[in-house]
Amino acid sequence: MKKLIFDIQISGHHSEYISHLVNYLCLNKSDDDYIFLVHSEFSVKFRDIVDKAKSNTKITWVEITPEEQFEISKSKNIVYLSFITFKLMDAYAKYYEVGHVYLLYFNTFQLPLIFYRTHYAISGVLFLQFYRMTKNTLKGKLKYLRKYYTTKLYAKNKQIKNVFVLNDEKSVHFLNKTFKVNFFKVLADPIPVLLPENGFNIRDKFSIPSNKKIFLHFGSLDARKGTLEILEAFNYIEEKYISEITLLLIGTASSSEFDYKIKTRIKSITNNNINSHIFYKNEFVSNSKMKSYFEQSDFVLIPYKNSEASSGILGHAVAASKPLISSKHGLIGELIKDNNFGVLLDNITPENIAKSIVKGLNTKFNFNNSEFVLNHSADSFVNTIIGSDEDHT
Questions:
Q1: Which of 186, 240, 357, 358 is the most buried (most CB within 10 A)?
Q2: pLDDT per residue over 238-288, tens digit each?
Q3: Domain 2-190+377-392 falls in which CATH fold?
Q4: How far apart are CA 329 and CA 113, in angstroms?
Q5: Contact 223/260 with Cβ under 8 angstroms?
Q6: Are 283 and 252 in contact (CB under 8 A)?
């Protein structure tokens, strides 16, 4: 059978997931043919992933055209984006006559799958499902209801074989029971085995003294990730602790406007207190350099505001045995609490983050990550996704 892997995003976990699939298919013989439909610049950005598959005749790379990429990227309306992305995927699926499509970002396709019935089976990875959403405001209730009825309607689509939910057994049980289906399944968010970059030392790069603890905020930097609250926390940390801390903000800002906000806040904080040690790099970071950042930092900050979110950053921190600072609410808070992986915030405010940073400085963590890392292997992740449809083919 021909199978289509669809992911035309290029940042964060998207390339990691594709890399896991390619690694697995290169090491395990398959009777199926896999077509990877990816971003128009994928082979430029991730030449190493493409090269790994050169000798595998079962893997075909297809990049969407720059024109198609531009059409997708310029779309600001979520509904319009959903339908044009579906039509793009559907056109390629029909052209290559595939029997199964795997959507590595299922969220975009929820609305179209209410209305369209395809000739091929569909599986996908769902992020930010609604079960854990807060409903204590009118806006929260309306968003919950919108997602509830969207799910109820696409759940009637018989071509959907699997919808994978990251790390969240409670949500999977709720969704299957509520909508009387059995296609929602738990997917362990994979922790990749990475090697650090040779010779890259973050203390040397940023001139960080050995007596300072490094607090890392990594990945996609955005308001919903608590980035600005982390910066504002420096206004609430006592002077005697400021001298013990270095903050690294490393990753890509969500927009040029947010990049400016970060720079403005840093300038304001360092002007008010010259002892504040903050470094910001708005850049794409390779996997090996990312591994170095996690291994060489002391704490990882992930005060995300979406209670329903999972996070690949949690996995990278756990693999490096670095304690996390996060909200106690939602899935991430539950994972951290259940495994004793760090310090939890009651609410995401600068004051609370400041207190948690100080608590982290004064706490000795007994970090046991071996079982969690084992259960979140890349092979387990791939087996769940592409091995899950065997009964349907």
A1: 357
A2: 999 999 999 999 999 989 999 999 999 999 999 988 889 999 999 988 889
A3: Rossmann fold (3.40.50)
A4: 31
A5: no
A6: yes
